[in-house]
């Protein structure tokens, strides 16, 4: 038995249960552990290895074994159990995370995410690659509040840092097999070995498949298909070279491929009874994504100094097709295609110093990336007709989309009204040279049947093409000085500069057919071809209503932003087992450009965040109690909203607003006996807009001032219990249960006022049999044990035609997981 296996034993990730409840830093001790205390986890949040209990930051840290115990296969699965954090991502290629109410859920190339995601110290760059299934990971750290003096860029709301396992000279590895309902099949492995006295190699990989859990009940060619499938695989490899006693060189490479159906939901207004049942859809969609990257990390230490260099190249490409209306009703047919290709290069240097009285580091980073994006919207002229009718009846009916769907005799009325009011000025201009005007030529009397015959059911596609080149520089540092034996003060400072070159292009590619015009003097309808100067068709845009640039010649834009951001922390240790800290930090996120419209650039975000907290241990290390209170104010918060001028289908755009928020987070962990572990946490978050600039299409007087920010529940509570039964023959049987309550949330990114999303409760259960040596384990699990029906989100582009999509949470998932360590 190797020493590695002995250590592994029942150390189910230095955070076994607290993973589920997001209580950072510890795991249930092994049956052989004699000190009968909570275990610590070492993190690198401040760019040096230290116990999570010694870091004056609100941080949740999770080790790989504990994450597996929690049943999470990616960051999205962890969000439910972390106070102050929401994930709820139904779209892996357009992931957006929320920390303490702050997120940027824009999928366009012109903006950046508010929550920075790092993999092995490398910034992922964009939401398209932020969410992948874990692959041979060592730990995950979630830091809350501005982290600009510690991380490379865009960590104003917080940061998520994922670290994969490093190679070691010891030959060891594992195989993990999972099978479950909906034909779940997942195999993961990791293997490390020494190749020579100075070289070690590690490789990890997985393959994952699952059938969909929703049946398509539509009478279409894809009827009966299961929706919301999983099909992805990945590999990560690393090579460690130690040319000297104080030098490590690690070369890493990773690859991930996903090929599934698209994000799926059901219409909240047209099919509310189907949200948790069979769906009716005429397009299952697809998500085809490839991510790959490589990095070289060189670390050299001497005396009290450590120099680190991280050079990385990453990139991804994806094509995602998504149904946006959540129904197979032809009146509401609306789909989108997002085609994106991104590549990035980054270089970071850090110099660390540490002695008994002072610790500091300085860093410099360079980041360059390029994104090319094409965004397509597919509809029909029937969809356009529906939009004009829904828009017209919006002030009359509470659910105008349902009224239009239930009254097929209205078909054509919306297009006729649009042609009368929207096309008439254009016709006037074209008829004037011939001595004709709308007083003599009347489109309003053209028959509905003629309009429908010419335009009804015609495919309608509009496209927006954009690209962005970003160059970012930053210099930052952090110094901690021990004023006394019990008081430390930390001062950090960061200078950032971001420059973006943005190109955008959109042209009219559709024609509104004008079949007949009525010449009033003759009182008869004539073909447009018989009237001098009358156009038979008019090019038009009803989604991307502006023509921007020309094909091959996009409109070019450029802007730059810079900021100096300080951080001050003071921490006091009244005893060896308690730390009280206070911090004040400024955060920054670069401005950008709307990817779906010809608007000026929006401003950079600035946030001031204050926080006081306590980290403590009691009962000789058997109990941990952490608490924090925070307050923030955002200037120029970048908010995303469906918007557009009257008469066009709304699209997503960003404007700046101001906001504030505050909250409390409590975390408790208690090792009641050597066999019983209890934990709980609570998060209270309240946010509101304090300034709101109206978007195009907002009703006069509409404002979000006083309304909460999207996606964050005010109350969130978790509880966990785990008990281990030990047997004389060196076997252990462990059973644990996790409970989560997530309160009501709101989505303010749709048309008009926010859409409330009801709270929910989820219970997970896991039973594990393992041997004391840690060679093998066999677990039965059930996530969402009681099959709670709840929603992740309500909204999407379909909201613009009165049919927002409700994205449901995962149903009960159960199965068997076996692991062998060698």
UniProtKB/TrEMBL annotation:
Q: Please report the name of this protein according to its UniProt entry.
A: TonB-dependent receptor, plug
Mode of membrane association: Multi-pass membrane protein
> What's an example Gene Ontology biological process for this entry?
iron ion transport
Which positions make up the signal peptide? 1-32
Any Gene Ontology CC annotation: cell outer membrane
Entry's Pfam families? Plug (PF07715), TonB_dep_Rec_b-barrel (PF00593)
Q: Where is the TonB-dependent receptor plug domain?
A: 52-159
Keyword Hydrolase on entry:
no
Supply the source organism's classification: Bacteria, Pseudomonadati, Pseudomonadota, Gammaproteobacteria, Cellvibrionales
Among its keywords, does the record have Transport? yes
Q: Chief location of this protein?
A: membrane
Q: Which UniProt keywords apply?
A: Cell outer membrane, Ion transport, Iron, Iron transport, Membrane, Receptor, Signal, TonB box, Transmembrane, Transmembrane beta strand, Transport
Location comes to: Cell outer membrane
- Every copy of the TonB-dependent receptor-like beta-barrel domain together lies at 302-785
Q: Which family does it belong to?
A: Belongs to the TonB-dependent receptor family.
């Amino acid at each position: 038995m190797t020493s590695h296996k002995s250590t592994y034993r029942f150390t189910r990730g230095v955070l076994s249960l607290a993973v589920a409840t997001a209580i950072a830093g510890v795991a249930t001790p092994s049956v052989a552990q004699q000190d009968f205390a909570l275990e610590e986890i070492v993190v690198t949040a401040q760019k040096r290895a230290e116990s999570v209990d010694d870091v004056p930051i609100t941080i949740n840290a999770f080790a790989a074994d504990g994450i597996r115990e929690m049943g999470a296969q990616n960051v999205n699965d962890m969000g439910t159990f972390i106070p102050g954090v929401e994930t709820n991502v139904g779209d892996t290629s357009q992931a957006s995370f929320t920390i303490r109410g702050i997120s940027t859920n824009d999928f366009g190339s012109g903006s950046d995410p508010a929550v920075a995601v790092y993999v092995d110290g490398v910034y992922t760059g964009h939401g398209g690659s932020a969410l992948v299934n874990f692959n041979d990971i060592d730990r995950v750290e979630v830091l809350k509040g501005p982290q600009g003096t510690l991380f490379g860029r865009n960590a104003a709301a917080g940061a998520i840092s994922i670290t994969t396992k490093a190679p070691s000279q010891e030959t060891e590895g594992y195989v993990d097999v999972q099978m479950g309902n909906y034909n779940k099949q997942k195999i993961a492995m990791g293997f490390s070995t020494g190749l020579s006295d100075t070289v070690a190699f590690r490789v990890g990989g997985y393959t994952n498949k699952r059938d969909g859990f929703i049946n398509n009940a539509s009478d279409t060619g894809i009827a009966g298909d299961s929706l919301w499938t999983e099909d992805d695989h990945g590999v990560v490899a690393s090579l460690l070279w130690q040319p000297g006693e104080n030098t490590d060189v690690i070369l890493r490479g990773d690859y991930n491929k996903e090929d599934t159906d698209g994000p799926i939901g059901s219409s909240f207004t047209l099919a509310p009874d189907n949200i948790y049942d069979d769906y009716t859809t005429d397009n299952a969609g697809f998500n085809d994504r490839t991510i790959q990257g490589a990095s070289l990390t060189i670390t050299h230490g001497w005396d009290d100094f450590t120099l680190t260099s991280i050079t990385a190249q990453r990139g991804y490409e994806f094509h995602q097709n998504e149904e946006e209306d959540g129904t197979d009703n032809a009146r509401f047919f609306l789909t989108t295609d997002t085609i994106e290709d991104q590549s990035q290069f980054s270089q970071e240097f850090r110099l660390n110093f540490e002695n008994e009285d002072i610790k500091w580091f300085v860093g410099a980073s360079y980041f360059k990336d390029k994104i090319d994006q094409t965004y397509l919207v597919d509809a029909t002229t029937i969809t356009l007709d529906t939009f004009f009718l829904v828009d017209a009846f919006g002030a009359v009916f509470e659910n105008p989309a349902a009224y239009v769907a239930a009254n097929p005799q209205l078909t054509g009325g919306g297009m006729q009204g649009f042609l009368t009011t929207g096309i008439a000025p254009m016709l006037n201009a074209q008829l004037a040279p011939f001595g004709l005007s709308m007083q003599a030529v009347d489109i309003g009397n053209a028959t509905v049947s003629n309009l429908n015959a010419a335009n009804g059911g015609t495919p309608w596609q509009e496209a927006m093409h954009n690209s962005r080149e970003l160059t970012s520089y930053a210099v930052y540092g952090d110094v901690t000085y021990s004023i006394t034996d019990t008081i430390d003060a930390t001062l950090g400072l960061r200078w950032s500069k971001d420059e973006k070159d943005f190109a955008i292009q959109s042209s009219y590619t559709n024609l509104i057919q004008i079949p007949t015009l009525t010449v009033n003097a003759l009182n008869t309808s004539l073909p447009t071809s018989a009237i001098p100067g009358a156009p038979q068709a008019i090019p038009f845009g009803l989604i991307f209503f502006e023509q921007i640039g020309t094909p091959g010649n996009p409109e070019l834009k450029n802007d730059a932003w810079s900021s100096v951001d300080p951080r001050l922390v003071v921490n006091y240790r009244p005893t060896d087992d308690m730390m009280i800290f206070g911090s004040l930090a400024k955060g920054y996120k670069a401005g950008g450009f709307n990817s779906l419209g010809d608007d000026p650039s929006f401003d950079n975000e600035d946030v001031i965040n204050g926080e006081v907290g306590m980290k403590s241990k009691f009962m000789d290390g058997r109990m941990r109690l952490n608490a924090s209170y925070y307050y923030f104010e955002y200037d120029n918060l970048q908010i995303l909203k469906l918007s557009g001028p009257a008469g066009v289908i709304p699209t997503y755009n960003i404007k700046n607003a101001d906001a504030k928020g505050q909250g409390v987070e409590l975390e408790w962990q208690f090792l009641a006996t050597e066999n019983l572990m209890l934990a709980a946490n609570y998060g209270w978050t309240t946010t509101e807009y304090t300034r709101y600039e109206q978007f195009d299409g907002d009703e006069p007087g509409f404002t979000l001032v006083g309304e909460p920010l999207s996606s964050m529940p005010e109350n969130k509570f978790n509880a966990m219990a785990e008990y281990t039964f030990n047997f004389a023959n060196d076997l252990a049987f462990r059973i644990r249960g996790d409970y989560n309550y997530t309160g009501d949330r709101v989505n303010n990114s749709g048309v008009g006022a926010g859409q409330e999303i009801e709270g929910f409760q989820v219970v997970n259960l896991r039973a594990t049999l393992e041997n004391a040596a840690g060679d093998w384990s066999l677990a039965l699990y059930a996530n969402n044990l009681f099959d709670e029906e709840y929603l992740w989100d309500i909204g999407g582009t379909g909201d613009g035609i009165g049919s927002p999509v409700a994205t449901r949470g995962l149903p009960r998932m159960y199965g068997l997981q076996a692991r062998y360590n060698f």
